[in-house]
Specification:
By secondary structure, the chain is of the alpha+beta class. The protein has two domains: 3-111, Ubiquitin-like (UB roll) (Roll), CATH 3.10.20; 114-249, Fumarate Reductase Iron-sulfur Protein, Chain B, domain 2 (Orthogonal Bundle), CATH 1.10.1060. Helix content is 32%, strand content 13%. The protein contains eight helices and seven strands, in the order ββαβββββααααααα. The strands form two sheets. A five-stranded mixed β-sheet has the order 2-1-5-3-4. Strand 3 (73-76) and strand 4 (79-82) form a beta hairpin. Helix 3 (143-152) runs antiparallel to helix 5 (177-187), helix 5 (177-187) packs across helix 8 and helix 6 (196-204) crosses helix 8 (228-249). The N and C termini lie far apart (78 Å). 34% of the residues are buried. GO terms for molecular function: 2 iron, 2 sulfur cluster binding; 3 iron, 4 sulfur cluster binding; 4 iron, 4 sulfur cluster binding; electron transfer activity; metal ion binding; succinate dehydrogenase (quinone) activity.
Length: 250
């Protein structure tokens, strides 16, 4: 077979959380309409590297394969994105695949995104209700507000915005762009607004809004096109009003 009939991948691997990363090359048969997940599945079926050595299968995460769950986030040719929508025909070869560096590596391309879920807990990213009984019809929401909330609700906690953000690093405690969008989502709901001040206080705490450098990488990298910079601007305004309100109450 000619070289064009193969897919050449260079995968950054790591055998465990405390292991050292290393690169391993694979050449797999090309098939039309492959995505990166298909390529990784081919390696899983026949885990032999480009030297002909039998190796352990590459570990990764995936679920929906429709760019909805966010599980298959990784760095592909230097860009954080979803592997399920990374089409082989549109990627420059050799295809370099790495885990996201913002999160601790569990193994190979699998990372621990606990910091994202802890951030959601910190800002109380939920609508509190008292009991499970019938509360009747919910409050009516204006169409423009509904559309705004719908855009924010697309977040799939994939971690791409954190990987792309230069302010999320070992020297910063920045909570991340995604969580600011979720604060806007829940604060703009009539019931969620009951905890609005608590969420704003969380954003004003350590690693909050003051750590954002407005690089706008997050909105460019977001696979769902969520208006994160608009959410950050709105949250800055809300937080400023909240601080003035506190100051005037003294």
């Amino acid at each position: 077979m000619s070289e064009q009939q193969f897919v050449h991948l260079i995968v950054t691997r790591q055998d465990g959380p405390d292991g050292k990363p290393y690169k391993e090359e694979f050449k797999i048969p090309y098939r039309k309409n492959m995505n990166l997940i298909s390529a990784l599945m081919e390696i899983q079926r026949n885990p032999v590297n480009s030297k002909g050595e039998k190796v352990s299968p590459v570990q990764w995460e995936s679920n929906c394969l429709e760019e909805v769950c966010g599980a298959c986030s990784m760095v592909i040719n230097g860009k954080p994105r979803q592997a399920c929508t990374a089409l082989i025909d549109k990627l420059e070869q050799p295809i370099r695949v790495e885990p996201m560096k913002t999160f601790p590596v569990v193994r190979d391309l699998v990372v621990d995104r606990s910091r994202m879920f802890n951030a959601l807990k910190r800002v109380k990213a939920w609508i509190p209700i008292d009991g499970t009984y019938d509360l009747g019809p919910g409050p009516r929401i204006a169409e423009n507000e509904r559309q705004w909330r719908y855009e924010l609700s697309k977040c799939m906690t994939c971690g791409v915005c954190l990987e792309a953000c230069p302010n999320v690093n070992t020297k910063s405690d920045f909570i991340g762009p995604f969580v600011v969008g979720q604060v806007q989502l829940f604060n703009s709901h009539p019931t969620g607004a009951m905890n609005k001040e608590e969420r704003l206080e969380a954003l004003l705490g350590e690693g909050g809004l003051q750590e954002c450098g407005n690089s706008q990488n997050c909105v460019r990298a977001c696979p769902k096109g969520i208006p994160l910079t608009t959410a950050i601007a709105k949250s800055n305004r809300d937080a400023t009003k909240h601080m003035f309100k506190k100051w005037l109450s003294f």
